[in-house]
Each structure stands twice: as structure tokens, then as C-alpha cells.
Write a structure and sequence with these properties.
The protein contains 5 helices and 4 strands, in the order E-H-H-E-E-E-H-H-H. The protein is an alpha+beta fold and about 130 residues long. Helix 1 crosses helix 3. The model has no long low-confidence stretch (mean pLDDT about 85). InterPro entries: mtLSU_mL53, Ribosomal_mL53.
Length: about 130
């Protein structure tokens, strides 16, 4: 998960009962496997003393920053969103390195063409 991020900032008040997501996400970030995936990723923890709701701010390697409300978003959901965006970034980088335009625009008529190398699914055969 951290391999797609350059910075993670976790803010919470330790006395606030809504900090579960922040603490779980912090534990995931501190896991050995996560740290090894990107040792350069900065991890900042800001312990607040005010009533500001817990939040997690992540900065992706391309500089895009996202702020998650940790009171209403589970840590696993945040992790999943990071991984999905990371896969998108990897795909974009792969196309750019190959000299292809990004984003790839597929003409509408090509989206509906059948591919000669595929077999129809059995469930689809039964429908016909």
C-alpha cells in the first residue's frame, strides 16, 4: 500500500472515541511489509488536543493529496481506495513509458466488438 504514497499524515485526539480507524491504519502503515514496500514514504502522526475529527491525509507519488474522514471511513476502505488508485497510477506509468498517449481512449464501436479468440460463457449459451 505504501509503495504508491510519498507521505501519510494521521491526525487524531487520543481521548476521542472515534480514533479506531486512525489507529488501525497507523498499525497497517507500521507493519514491516508496508515499510519495506516504500522506505521513503514519510509517516507523520499528529496527536491533537482539540475536537477536530480524526483524519488521514495521503499524498500519492504523483503529488495528488487525498484527505479521508477517519470517523466515517474504515481503515480497510481507505487501504482499498489507495490500492485501486495505485494500480491506476502504475497503468498510467506503464503506458507513458511505452510512449502511448494517456488516457487511452477506446472508440465506442470497438467496445462492443467481439474478440475472435474468446469463447462465450456457458451461462450466456443457455440464454440463447
Amino acid at each position: 500500500m505504501l509503495k504508491f504514497l510519498s507521505k501519510v499524515k494521521i491526525e487524531f485526539n487520543a481521548l476521542d472515541p472515534r480514533t479506531a480507524s486512525c489507529l488501525e491504519f497507523l498499525a497497517q502503515c507500521n507493519a514491516r511489509q508496508a515499510k519495506e514496500s516504500n522506505p521513503a514514504c514519510q509517516l507523520q502522526v499528529k496527536r491533537r488536543t482539540d475536537d477536530h475529527p480524526p483524519q488521514i491525509t495521503v499524498t500519492f507519488v504523483n503529488g495528488v493529496e487525498e484527505i479521508f474522514d477517519a470517523t466515517s471511513t474504515p481503515a480497510q476502505t481507505i487501504r482499498t481506495m489507495i490500492l485501486e488508485k495505485g494500480q491506476f497510477l502504475e497503468t498510467e506509468q506503464m503506458f507513458r513509458e511505452a510512449g502511448e498517449k494517456w488516457p487511452v481512449i477506446i472508440p465506442e464501436e470497438e467496445l462492443h466488438q467481439s474478440f475472435p479468440g474468446t469463447k462465450p460463457r456457458k451461462a450466456e449459451d443457455k440464454k440463447q
